[in-house]
Amino acid sequence: WIKRARPGTLTIPVPLFENSSSFTDLHTQVNGLMNFIRSTVNAAPHRFLNGYDLVCFSQGGLICRTTVQAMDDHNVQTLVSLAGPQQGVYGPSAYWWNHITSLPSEFQIAGKTDIFYRPFMQSSCSVANMWHDPTEEDEFRSQNVFLPLYNGL
């Protein structure tokens, strides 16, 4: 849609962490995006003399925002985050409701909090990095290794 609205605009899709690899922990995804941006700019620096814009959607919106925060050598002029879960995600998912309906709804949320805040999940799963249980704020701040860091908590 960008090329239709602004013909001649250079657009570069980011071929990282697609499909099931989107479950990779968010620190790894942020580092991957930083490396992709650096290598893209270094390959054709004349194209990026005036900077570049990032247009990112959903989980990508969170990854782009935190990449801009973490990357001290970027030249991002505009960041557009569409439907990015900047404050995290919480609640029962459609998958759980449709496939695990025998579990009480309380477990579908409390069970996720218990699982997602474990060190193994925090070091390996993007959904765990985005999990923000508002009823367990202290646990969120002390156990989530991603969002509190980038949200200044």
From TrEMBL:
Keywords: Glycoprotein, Hydrolase, Lysosome, Signal
Entry annotated with the keyword Hydrolase: yes
Organism domain of life: Eukaryota
Transmembrane segments: none
Pfam short name (any one): Palm_thioest
Molecular function in Gene Ontology: thiolester hydrolase activity
Catalytic activity reported: S-hexadecanoyl-N-acetylcysteamine + H2O = N-acetylcysteamine + hexadecanoate + H(+)
Compartment annotation: Lysosome
InterPro entries assigned: AB_hydrolase_fold (IPR029058)
Gene Ontology CC terms, in alphabetical order: lysosome
Chief localisation class: other
EC number annotated for this UniProt entry: 3.1.2.2
Job of this protein: Catalyzes the cleavage of thioester bonds from S-palmitoyl-CoA or S-palmitoyl-N-acetylcysteamine (unbranched structures) but does not have activity against palmitoylcysteine or palmitoylated proteins, branched structures or bulky head groups. Conversely, hydrolyzes both long and short chain fatty acyl-CoA substrate.
PANTHER family for this protein: LYSOSOMAL THIOESTERASE PPT2, PALMITOYL-PROTEIN THIOESTERASE/DOLICHYLDIPHOSPHATASE 1
Protein name: palmitoyl-CoA hydrolase
